[in-house]
Write a structure and sequence with these properties.
It is a single chain. The chain is mainly β. The protein has one domain: RNA polymerase II/Efflux pump adaptor protein, barrel-sandwich hybrid domain (OB fold (Dihydrolipoamide Acetyltransferase, E2P)), CATH 2.40.50. 10% of the residues lie in helices and 55% in strands. The chain has a 4-stranded antiparallel beta sheet. Strand 2 and strand 3 form a beta hairpin. It is globular, with a radius of gyration of 12 Å. The chain starts with 6 loop residues before the first strand and ends in a 7-residue tail after the last strand.
């Protein structure tokens, strides 16, 4: 799935949500991949993130960091 302005977009499912102080580490599983993202607690509550929820992710290809 392609996004806007050179961004990549995928549909996935929220897996573990790990509390990291004032940030939450959100794991999103898309076919054959696992993405991790950091969001604030407030944003997590605002968007209603919970394990098993279907979500869409998008990001600029230039913002990718491989570890």
């Amino acid at each position: 799935m392609s996004g806007i302005d050179g961004a990549i977009a995928q549909a996935g499912t929220v897996k573990p949500i790990i509390e990291r102080g004032f940030l939450f580490e959100i794991h999103v599983e898309v076919p054959d991949q696992l993405f991790r993202s950091l969001v604030t607690e407030g944003s997590s509550v605002d968007i209603g993130l919970e394990i098993g929820a279907g979500v869409g992710i998008s990001f600029k290809t230039s913002a990718v960091h491989l570890f």
